[in-house]
Amino acid sequence: MSSSAQTHADAGRRDTPLDGMASDTRLTVNGVPHDLHLDNRTTLLDALREHLHLTGTKKGCDHGQCGACTVLVNGQRINSCLTLACMHDGDQVETIEGIGQPGNLDPIQSAFIAHDGFQCGYCTPGQICSAKAVLEEIGAGIPSNVTADLSSIAISDDEIRERMSGNICRCGAYANILAAIRQVAEGRA
């Protein structure tokens, strides 16, 4: 095709802001598959909140420093504000909406209520997702920086504090959050 013919063909083309910058992404969120066409710059957090309307996961700092956006991806906790949705094509994502429902709460949710592990509640979804992962990590024998005996990981306040250190509570409910996690860890939920 001559350059004048190419120019004429391009004249009828309608460019969109996403041409060459979007991807088809399949996420299974809380057990439900979703096929999304997203700008490649869309974070997982924004995909959850703005495209899937799952607003339980919160945007706190948008820099990975507060943990309010913590979700579980393939069973591992991550800050959803720091990862692009297109990087998780085919992954399983669990948000606070998938952990439990009123009338059928997860034990960690019940423990947070019993121990008043929240005040304003903004950080609570991320705290609960992180706490769930912490309990699974300890149960799987995955050590942390404060694990004293690598052959036998014991649940301790220091162990829980270290593992939850990526989740900030501006209201200062840390003692209550710790008590809630210990209750579940010790099987009293």
TrEMBL record:
Q: Which PROSITE patterns match?
A: 2FE2S_FER_1 (PS00197), 2FE2S_FER_2 (PS51085)
Q: Where is this region: Disordered?
A: 1-26
Q: Does the keyword Iron-sulfur apply?
A: yes
Q: Which domain of life is it from?
A: Bacteria
What does the entry list under GO cellular component? periplasmic space
Q: Which Gene3D superfamilies match?
A: 3.10.20.30, [2Fe-2S]-binding domain (1.10.150.120)
Which is one GO molecular function term here? Answer: 2 iron, 2 sulfur cluster binding
Which Pfam families does the UniProt record give?
Fer2, Fer2_2
Alphabetically sorted, this entry's keywords are: 2Fe-2S, Iron, Iron-sulfur, Metal-binding, Oxidoreductase
2Fe-2S ferredoxin-type domain: residues covered: 23-99
What protein name is recorded for this chain? 2Fe-2S iron-sulfur cluster binding domain-containing protein
Q: What is the lineage of its organism?
A: Bacteria, Pseudomonadati, Pseudomonadota, Alphaproteobacteria, Rhodobacterales
